[in-house]
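Hi there,

I know you've been waiting on this one. I reran it after we fixed the sequence typo, so this is the corrected version. Both the input and the resulting structure follow.
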Amino acid sequence: MERINKIIVLMLVILGGLMGCYKHIPLEKPMVPVEFKVVPLDEPAPPQGEADIIITTHIKKKSYIFEPRTVETPYVFTLLIDGKELRESVKGMEEIISDVEAERGKGIHYNLKKRLRLKQGSYTIALRSEDRRSDEIEMELAGGKLYTLRFEPFYGLKKHHRLKLFSDGVERYKIYWEEIK
């Protein structure tokens, strides 16, 4: 009888050790790859069942001796729609005067403006910059509608509430979105 108890205890110890090797599979529904297409900015309104979203962002970069930047140096923005990547490489333009206080001074300004067509539904849309900054928003898109989504660079606050400048780098992106029609 003692021998049987020892065998049972040994088997329980072995099974307990193997339980740690068990991979837990979450009960969430599997992610279906999202389908979207890039459409021209002046495209007519989307049909029912689909929605358009115009995504815009910009950034200004300073050129340094060890990291020279010219208007020909591209900047890469990555849009992630439910995890599916759209990488956009944009060329800049030299800028000295800016309407944005934090972007005043000599630098290269990069603009991104894309119009995407997606099926109506819920999406997580994120922007990841070349500088490894990333911000995201969850949105519900209705069919036949046009939306705008802006990722505005925020360079942060310095002591005494003075704004940091673009040369200090982007701290994060502020996100604004609205339905146009």
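Quick highlight: The two ends are 80 Å apart (CA to CA).

Best,
R. S.
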